[in-house]
Write a structure and sequence with these properties.
This is 6,7-dimethyl-8-ribityllumazine synthase. The structure is a single chain. The protein contains five helices and four strands. It is α/β, with parallel strands linked by helices. The chain has a single domain, classed as Rossmann fold. It has a four-stranded parallel sheet, with helices on both faces. The structure holds the ligand Nc1c(NC[C@H](O)[C@H](O)[C@H](O)CO)[nH]c(=O)[nH]c1=O and the ligand CC(=O)[C@@H](O)COP(=O)(O)O. The ligand Nc1c(NC[C@H](O)[C@H](O)[C@H](O)CO)[nH]c(=O)[nH]c1=O binds next to β3 and α3. Ligand LW54GNZ2 binds next to β3 and α3.
């Protein structure tokens, strides 16, 4: 099995730890992976679409941290990314798991949620297996 990981570089101090957790868990499960970095969470859907077109990619996880700023801008980023991520998964009929924390979180809350990337990897692998067993 091969999983794509699309990683936002925005708040990279956090997302770097998230991707390390996901990679460690993929290694533990014996799952291969391909990493694609994008500038921020808003840019994740295009990265996902490119990876979904690769035949040997079975599923994708999106990794990001959408931390609260002074305005509601962070909500626009997350709501659009989440909607597009769901749409792409349905369009390409491959699992795309959400490993993006926020919106509305503080940096401290984001740090406490880095395992969301590992959980996304776990969900994605489970989905690939379930769909392959149909
Ligand atoms: N504020 C956060 C962003 N903002 C950047 C956008 O995601 C995007 O890169 C920009 O609008 C250009 O398209 N990204 C995050 O991942 N997290 C944030 O908290
Ligand atoms: C810089 C950003 O993309 C985001 O954190 C927005 O911050 P703000 O709401 O303070 O403009």
């Amino acid at each position: 099995m091969k999983i794509g990981m699309v990683v936002a570089e925005f708040n990279y101090d956090i997302t770097m730890m998230m991707v390390e957790r996901a990679k460690d868990y993929a290694d533990f499960l014996g799952v291969e992976y391909k990493i694609l970095k994008v500038p921020g969470t808003f840019d994740i859907p295009l990265g996902i679409k490119k990876l979904l077109k690769i035949d040997d990619i079975d599923g994708i996880i999106a990794i990001g941290a959408v931390i609260k700023g002074e305005t509601d801008h962070h909500r626009i980023i997350m709501e659009n990314a989440a909607r597009k991520i769901t749409d792409l998964s349905l369009e390409y009929e491959k699992p795309v798991a959400l490993g993006i924390s926020g919106p509305g979180e503080s940096r401290l809350q984001a740090e406490a949620r880095i395992d969301m990337a590992k959980e996304a990897l776990e969900s994605c692998v489970k989905m690939v297996k379930s769909l392959n067993n149909l």
